[in-house]
């Protein structure tokens, strides 16, 4: 993680996204992670933990000397529901029909982080195609919202609701860009 | 769970980025997050106590796991606290460059209140002061303003904080302050 990412609010919020983790050992003190502080956390329990906790728990090497490959980390990670097969097939069918924001506010951020940990070529390809297809749509909407002076907010807001954080930024940039160009062109004509 | 409060702070910071004004400093939340770090640190010390400095993670994996979770939670809280304050500091510096000084900024809520159409009462932060800034932030603004003034002082002929918009006309309007008699300009 570089310094810019450390202070980036979106990166921090992406880090708070929950990922299902299966504990590989009993931990008496960590019952509170499963909302049950009085009970020890049992091996095999699956809990959704934020990425900032899950990633390092999964990567930490608890027995460097042990030759057993499988029993090396505290937890084993799983893909979060937002990257599940169902969502992936829906995206494969039509990327534009899925409100990504309902899956995760930082959908692509979460995807990028998970793909650093998992070797999933197909998900990677789907996410890429999804972004490209949706980006074209976003550009179209952003241009339209800028073209009408009565602010096409009604329809625009509906469209924005399905966009995740990165897409919203893209929308804003495209929108401001189109508006800026228009203003500049008008200025050129005057002089 | 640990880290949830820190997350709230970051959400606040994120909201701040999209607001025109600076919302009140979250004294309570910041205090709760630092308290959480202190509690976690206490837990870590208590966990390590029986080992008398000879703790081997491989022998006691459950404890090692708890220690790691505690450590990561503290680190997470630190990151959230830094990000929250950094966002506010960025905004404050921007405002200072725009020409606000500490009196303007500290007095901001009063102005916001008058323009508040919803009529919601201003929420003073916990120490009863009406300022949106923490005392440390006020101090920062004061010192940053001084720095900026010193920096600007080096070039008296350039207005560093002036508008970057070039004038549209070669002439500018002036207001005559005192009677100067007859004036001859280049153009008559």
UniProtKB/TrEMBL annotation, chain A:
<feature type="domain" description="DNA replication complex GINS protein PSF3 N-terminal">
    <location>
        <begin position="9"/>
        <end position="58"/>
    </location>
</feature>
<dbReference type="InterPro" id="IPR036224">
    <property type="entry name" value="GINS_bundle-like_dom_sf"/>
</dbReference>
<dbReference type="InterPro" id="IPR021151">
    <property type="entry name" value="GINS_A"/>
</dbReference>
<protein>
    <recommendedName>
        <fullName>DNA replication complex GINS protein PSF3</fullName>
    </recommendedName>
</protein>
<dbReference type="InterPro" id="IPR055221">
    <property type="entry name" value="PSF3_N"/>
</dbReference>
<dbReference type="Pfam" id="PF05916">
    <property type="entry name" value="Sld5"/>
</dbReference>
<dbReference type="GO" id="GO:1902975">
    <property type="term" value="P:mitotic DNA replication initiation"/>
</dbReference>
<dbReference type="InterPro" id="IPR010492">
    <property type="entry name" value="GINS_Psf3"/>
</dbReference>
<comment type="similarity">
    <text>Belongs to the GINS3/PSF3 family.</text>
</comment>
<keyword id="KW-0539">Nucleus</keyword>
<dbReference type="InterPro" id="IPR038437">
    <property type="entry name" value="GINS_Psf3_sf"/>
</dbReference>
<feature type="domain" description="GINS subunit">
    <location>
        <begin position="83"/>
        <end position="185"/>
    </location>
</feature>
<keyword id="KW-0235">DNA replication</keyword>
<dbReference type="Pfam" id="PF22466">
    <property type="entry name" value="PSF3_N"/>
</dbReference>
<dbReference type="GO" id="GO:0000811">
    <property type="term" value="C:GINS complex"/>
</dbReference>
<comment type="function">
    <text>The GINS complex plays an essential role in the initiation of DNA replication.</text>
</comment>
<comment type="subunit">
    <text>Component of the GINS complex.</text>
</comment>
UniProtKB/TrEMBL annotation, chain B:
<dbReference type="InterPro" id="IPR021151">
    <property type="entry name" value="GINS_A"/>
</dbReference>
<dbReference type="InterPro" id="IPR005339">
    <property type="entry name" value="GINS_Psf1"/>
</dbReference>
<dbReference type="GO" id="GO:1902983">
    <property type="term" value="P:DNA strand elongation involved in mitotic DNA replication"/>
</dbReference>
<protein>
    <recommendedName>
        <fullName>DNA replication complex GINS protein PSF1</fullName>
    </recommendedName>
</protein>
<dbReference type="GO" id="GO:0000811">
    <property type="term" value="C:GINS complex"/>
</dbReference>
<feature type="compositionally biased region" description="Polar residues">
    <location>
        <begin position="114"/>
        <end position="135"/>
    </location>
</feature>
<comment type="subunit">
    <text>Component of the GINS complex.</text>
</comment>
<keyword id="KW-0235">DNA replication</keyword>
<comment type="function">
    <text>The GINS complex plays an essential role in the initiation of DNA replication.</text>
</comment>
<comment type="function">
    <text>Required for correct functioning of the GINS complex, a complex that plays an essential role in the initiation of DNA replication, and progression of DNA replication forks. GINS complex seems to bind preferentially to single-stranded DNA.</text>
</comment>
<keyword id="KW-0539">Nucleus</keyword>
<feature type="domain" description="GINS subunit">
    <location>
        <begin position="48"/>
        <end position="155"/>
    </location>
</feature>
<dbReference type="Pfam" id="PF05916">
    <property type="entry name" value="Sld5"/>
</dbReference>
<feature type="region of interest" description="Disordered">
    <location>
        <begin position="108"/>
        <end position="135"/>
    </location>
</feature>
<comment type="similarity">
    <text>Belongs to the GINS1/PSF1 family.</text>
</comment>
<dbReference type="InterPro" id="IPR036224">
    <property type="entry name" value="GINS_bundle-like_dom_sf"/>
</dbReference>
């Amino acid at each position: 993680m570089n310094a810019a990412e450390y202070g980036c609010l979106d990166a921090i919020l992406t880090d708070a996204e929950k990922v299902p983790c299966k504990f590989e050992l009993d931990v008496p003190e960590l019952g509170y992670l499963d909302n049950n502080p009085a009970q020890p956390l049992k091996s095999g329990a699956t809990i959704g933990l934020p990425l900032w906790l899950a990633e390092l728990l999964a990567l930490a090497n608890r027995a460097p000397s042990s030759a057993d490959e499988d029993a090396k980390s505290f937890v084993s990670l799983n893909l979060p529901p937002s990257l599940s097969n169902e969502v992936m097939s829906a995206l494969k069918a039509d990327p534009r029909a899925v409100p990504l924001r309902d899956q995760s506010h930082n959908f692509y951020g979460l995807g990028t982080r998970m793909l650093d940990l998992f070797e999933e070529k197909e998900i990677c390809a789907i996410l890429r195609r999804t972004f490209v297809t949706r980006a074209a749509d976003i550009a179209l909407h952003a241009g339209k919202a800028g073209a009408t002076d009565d602010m096409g907010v009604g329809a625009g807001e509906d469209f924005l609701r399905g966009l995740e954080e990165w897409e919203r930024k893209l929308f804003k940039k495209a929108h401001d860009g189109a508006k800026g160009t228009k203003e500049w062109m008008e200025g050129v004509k005057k002089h | 769970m640990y880290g949830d409060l820190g997350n709230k702070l970051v959400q606040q910071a994120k909201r701040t980025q999209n607001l025109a004004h600076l919302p009140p400093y979250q004294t309570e939340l910041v205090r709760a997050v630092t308290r959480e770090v202190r509690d976690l640190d206490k837990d870590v010390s208590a966990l390590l106590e029986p080992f008398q400095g000879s703790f081997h993670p491989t022998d006691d994996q459950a404890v090692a796991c708890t220690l790691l979770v505690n450590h990561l939670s503290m680190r997470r809280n630190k990151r959230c606290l830094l990000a929250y304050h950094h966002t506010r500091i960025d905004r404050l510096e921007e405002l200072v460059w725009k020409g606000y000084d500490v009196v303007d900024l500290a007095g901001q809520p009063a102005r916001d209140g008058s323009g508040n159409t919803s009529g919601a009462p201003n929420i003073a932060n916990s120490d009863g002061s009406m300022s949106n800034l923490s005392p440390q932030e006020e101090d920062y603004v004061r010192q940053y303003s001084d720095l900026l003034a010193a920096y600007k002082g080096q070039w008296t002929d350039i207005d560093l904080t002036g508008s970057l918009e070039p004038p549209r006309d070669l002439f500018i309007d002036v207001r005559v302050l005192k009677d100067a008699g007859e004036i001859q300009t280049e153009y008559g």
